[in-house]
């Protein structure tokens, strides 16, 4: 007997979010009884395509009668966008955002709100409701970002379509809308610590502790240590500090980062005094801000080297706030943070040693020890994507 294919809609932003969904989608693509639509918001579309996954963008959500909204959006487009986001994609994003806002508040009020708040005011639930009605998915899967992903989750809830949110980190800010009763009734989390956090915050749905699919490849990264050290001309007898250079001037909670030149100066002096140490600077692939001439006792990590391979080449990690701290800890590397403000809660969990400033850094680096992972209670590394895949299949079965 012929069985109709199950339909799955995926939607997510770029950055770490898309990396969490890519391995899950690749597992599901192996099944012939599934029909999968993938929508990549902003930089996610190109990230999916680079991974060999066919993806649509906001332009896929446009209707034939959206011409007036496209013309309106042209007046408000930003001058520059990310190189991975086409002008057509940006135009579609703004036109849909303005359209939904206008349908709810009227065009004059919508434009006033947009001029006051910018694109963060966009929340196109109606567009996603119409999209889901046309495609009739059996499940909607997103990561846990606000705006587009949140609107897609609200649309699924409004139509009583099953959904799943795949989370990647600690959900400190996201918990405000995840736990408000209008969100998906299913969520995967990376560790038991996060599950307990959501329960305390009042989440009433089903929580699956799966790990983060983007971290699965950490399992095999140590194979590359000798090759990468040779490539970067770092002797094997050196203890190497990885400094994760931030790509912004302030953290997500508004704390100013230490100026990069101050960190470089500290590391240069530290490695001059303690000759057994060297360092690697890891910059954001899209934000190279360090002058190579400043770096004498260390090296700049080429942007082509993955963060997983980079971690395999070092012995301890220094940062202010970054997902890399968690990735490092999961591979057993000592982590030192500078005035992180418990966002993420690395120090609270024993994942890092946090110091208040540069003056305390020398002792912290010299005394760095392997992290504790018992409070985090992360499941077996390397299995997350498969487990999330099984959750999706279980929900739609």
What does this structure look like?
- The chain is α/β, with parallel strands linked by helices and 397 residues long.
- It folds into 2 domains: 222 residues, 3-Layer(aba) Sandwich (Rossmann fold); 150 residues, 3-Layer(aba) Sandwich (Rossmann fold), CATH 3.40.50.
- The chain is 39% helix and 14% strand.
- A 6-stranded parallel sheet has the order 2-1-3-4-5-6, with helices on both faces. The chain has a 6-stranded parallel sheet with strand order 9-8-7-10-11-12, sandwiched between helices.
- The two termini are 17 Å apart.
- 41% of the residues are buried.
Brief synopsis:
The protein is α/β, with parallel strands linked by helices.
Strand content: 5-15%
Helix amount, in percent? 25-40%
What's the count of strands? 12
Shape by Cα distribution: globular
CATH topology of the largest domain: Rossmann fold
**Would you state the CATH class of the largest domain?**
Alpha Beta
Helices and strands, with pairings:
Layout: E1 6-12, H1 16-29, E2 34-40, H2 44-50, H3 67-74, H4 87-105, H5 107-117, H6 125-135, E3 139-142, H7 148-158, E4 163-166, H8 175-178, E5 186-189, H9 192-201, E6 206-209, H10 225-231, E7 239-244, H11 260-273, E8 277-282, E9 298-300, H12 307-312, E10 316-319, H13 323-330, E11 335-338, H14 346-349, E12 353-355, H15 361-366, H16 384-396
């Amino acid at each position: 007997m012929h069985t109709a294919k199950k339909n799955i809609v995926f939607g997510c932003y770029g950055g770490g979010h898309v990396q969490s969904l890519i391995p899950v989608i690749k597992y599901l693509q192996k099944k012939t009884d599934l029909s999968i639509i993938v929508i990549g918001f902003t930089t996610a579309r190109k990230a999916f395509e680079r991974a060999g996954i066919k993806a649509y963008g906001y332009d896929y959500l446009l209707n034939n009668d959206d011409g007036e909204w496209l013309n309106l959006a042209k007046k408000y487009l930003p001058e520059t966008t990310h190189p991975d986001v086409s002008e057509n994609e940006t135009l579609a994003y703004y036109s849909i955002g303005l359209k939904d806002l206008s349908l709810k508040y009227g065009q004059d009020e919508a434009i006033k709100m947009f001029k006051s708040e910018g694109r963060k005011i966009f929340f196109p639930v109606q567009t996603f409701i119409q999209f889901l009605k046309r495609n009739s998915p059996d499940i909607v899967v997103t990561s846990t970002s606000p705006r587009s992903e949140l609107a897609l989750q609200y649309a699924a809830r409004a139509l009583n379509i099953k959904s799943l949110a795949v989370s990647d980190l600690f959900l400190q800010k996201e918990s405000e809308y995840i736990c408000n009763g209008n969100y998906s009734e299913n969520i995967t989390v990376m560790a038991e610590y996060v599950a307990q956090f959501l329960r305390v915050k009042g989440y009433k749905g089903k929580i699956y502790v799966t790990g983060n699919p983007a971290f699965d490849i950490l399992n095999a990264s140590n194979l590359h240590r000798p090759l990468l050290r040779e490539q970067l001309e770092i002797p094997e007898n050196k203890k190497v500090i990885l400094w994760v250079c931030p790509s912004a001037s302030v953290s997500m909670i508004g704390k100013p980062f230490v100026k990069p030149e101050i960190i470089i100066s500290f590391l240069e002096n530290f490695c001059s005094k303690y000759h057994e140490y060297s360092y690697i600077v890891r910059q954001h692939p899209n934000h190279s801000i360090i002058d190579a001439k400043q770096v004498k006792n260390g090296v700049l990590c080429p942007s082509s080297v993955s963060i997983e391979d980079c971690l395999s080449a070092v012995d301890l990690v220094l940062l202010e706030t970054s997902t890399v701290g968690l990735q490092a800890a999961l591979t057993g590397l000592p982590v030192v943070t500078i005035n992180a403000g418990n966002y993420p809660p690395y120090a609270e969990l024993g994942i890092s040693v946090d110091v208040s400033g540069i003056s305390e850094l020398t002792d912290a680096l010299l005394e760095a020890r392997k992290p504790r992972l018992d409070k985090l209670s992360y499941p077996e590394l390397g299995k997350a994507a498969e487990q999330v895949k099984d959750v999706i299949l279980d929900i739609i079965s």
